[in-house]
Design brief:
single chain; 171 residues; mainly alpha; two-stranded antiparallel sheet; 5 helices; extended
């Protein structure tokens, strides 16, 4: 049954689907372990706090996913720039280069704007004040950028899912 799961004959869409399912399964297992096994273990230094047993595994998974994503992004950008001169800017009348550069610049601008608009207000964390402005703004940047990109992705998915309906309405 696993024969051909990552076969070289798979289309890019099928390969990305398989990778998505593997990552989704891994994430579900890790978070299930995090919440269902030893979640209420008391913290040694202060028993009023929890120290879930699988915290390190969740953090390692997030680190690996972040590093893997960054590595794939850099590889993809380098490959795109390397092939950029050789490829046409249109592929089946789709302006590939314009879309690529538009997404890249939009993402960079979004990250910069959400960082600049991020809140530098002090927070109480575990009962202690935390006031490192850079990391407070960085955390806000990641939260707001993620929310905005998720809303855009949901909108694009809904738009794509209604393609057949829009096509039938036009005819």
């Amino acid at each position: 049954m696993m024969k051909g799961f990552f076969s070289k004959n798979l289309s890019a869409e099928r390969l990305s689907q398989h990778i998505f399912y593997v990552l989704l399964g891994l994430i579900v297992v890790v978070f299930a372990l995090f919440y269902l096994v030893g979640f209420n273990a008391p913290f040694i230094d202060d028993p009023s706090f929890n120290a879930p047993l699988f915290t390190d595994v969740v953090m390692a998974l997030m680190f690996l996913l972040t590093v893997g994503t960054l590595a794939l992004t850099v590889w993809s950008l380098a490959r795109g720039v390397k092939k950029g001169g050789a490829e046409q800017s249109n592929d089946n009348n789709i302006p590939v280069k314009r879309i690529t550069y538009g997404v890249l610049f939009f993402t960079l601008i979004l990250i910069a704007v959400t960082f600049l608009l991020g809140s530098p207000d002090e927070m109480l964390i575990n009962g202690k004040p935390y006031n490192d402005i850079f990391w407070l703004k960085t955390a806000d940047m990641f939260i707001w950028t993620t929310i905005i990109l998720l809303v855009i992705a949901i909108g694009a998915t809904i738009f794509g899912a209604t393609r057949y309906y829009r096509k039938s309405v036009r005819q």
